[in-house]
Amino acid sequence: MSNKIRWGVLGGGGDSLIGVLHRVAASMFDAYQLVGGSFNPDIEVSKDFATQIGIPTDRIYKDLTELVQKETALPADQRMQVVSILTPNFLHFPMAKQLLEAGFNVICEKPMTMTHAEALELEAIQKKNGNVFGLTHTYTGYPMVRQMREMIANGELGEIQKVDAQYYQGWINNLIHDKEQRNSTWRLMPEKSGISCCLGDIGVHAYQMLEFVTGKKIKSVLADLNHLYEDNEMDIDGTVLLRLDEYTKGVLRSSQIATGEENNFTVAIYGTKAGLKWEQENPNYLYLLEDGQPMRVLKPGHAYNSALSLDGTKLPPGHPEGIFDAMGNIYKGVAKVIRGEDYNSGEFPGMTDGVRGMNFIEKAVQSHRDGNVWVNL
């Protein structure tokens, strides 16, 4: 019998990019076997898709309720061990709640929920039942992001005094200037996307990344958001000032109307000894800055990197690794915990990241609505 982790998927069917990303990532270390799920609200479409990707249709379900009922009726050594949620935002909370209460481990796309209150409710369920919960802040899986985290934790930058994160895209330009389109896309519908579009979609990645690499918690925020049109309820651009403590401050900039930008996510951390910079569009380069010294470029796969970075490196030096590899590292970390193996807390984001992310989104929106004031997290 296969010793692979039995894996189910909700959503991610058809030509879904996120579905492909998760399936490739789960296959990387031969740790998972996709055994079923519900890829589409139409069960016949789900079954057709299952046939296309080469998995049996006997465990393709019409909805999550049927999945839970039939999977929990199976012997423990046959039922799904973990289920990934790849659906639109508004389904994340009810699906995660039902799965956690039924005893399943969960891997969830972000944002984890629609509200901070929902996130706290999930956290309470997970603590009670002891489920494994992975949140796919994918960029934390890059080897050089992990290297940045370890170098900062080891004190190589000294005391952190400035943080800067930028996440710029331009894709929403294609629809925001058309009244009919901006009022019909789910990304700009609060009932489906939550109270924020830009911060909820990409700004929360930058927020989570800053806390992930520095090991510090952001204490308060001051936000200035842009909706661009009066009939658009959702932010599509924003700048957020950050306070981590009395002497550590920074800025988070996110935009979906940065014309011509693709996925320009950059992170810079400056300490009393040195600084580090990383760019998602060139993820194999980590720039080390020191006063009076030439800039150094650190790359994955070399022995000078940390154990956490090397564990997430699949190829010899000089061979580029990308977004699929980063997601694969998150799935690898979740697999270690499900199997009861030793793991580093930096191997995958989890429930705490989701709770803090939702709190950040709500407090940043509150800061803007209250007249651009400081709000404590």
From TrEMBL:
<dbReference type="Pfam" id="PF01408">
    <property type="entry name" value="GFO_IDH_MocA"/>
</dbReference>
<dbReference type="GO" id="GO:0000166">
    <property type="term" value="F:nucleotide binding"/>
</dbReference>
<dbReference type="InterPro" id="IPR036291">
    <property type="entry name" value="NAD(P)-bd_dom_sf"/>
</dbReference>
<feature type="domain" description="GFO/IDH/MocA-like oxidoreductase">
    <location>
        <begin position="145"/>
        <end position="276"/>
    </location>
</feature>
<dbReference type="InterPro" id="IPR055170">
    <property type="entry name" value="GFO_IDH_MocA-like_dom"/>
</dbReference>
<protein>
    <submittedName>
        <fullName>Oxidoreductase</fullName>
    </submittedName>
</protein>
<dbReference type="InterPro" id="IPR051317">
    <property type="entry name" value="Gfo/Idh/MocA_oxidoreduct"/>
</dbReference>
<feature type="domain" description="Gfo/Idh/MocA-like oxidoreductase N-terminal">
    <location>
        <begin position="6"/>
        <end position="136"/>
    </location>
</feature>
<dbReference type="InterPro" id="IPR000683">
    <property type="entry name" value="Gfo/Idh/MocA-like_OxRdtase_N"/>
</dbReference>
<dbReference type="Pfam" id="PF22725">
    <property type="entry name" value="GFO_IDH_MocA_C3"/>
</dbReference>
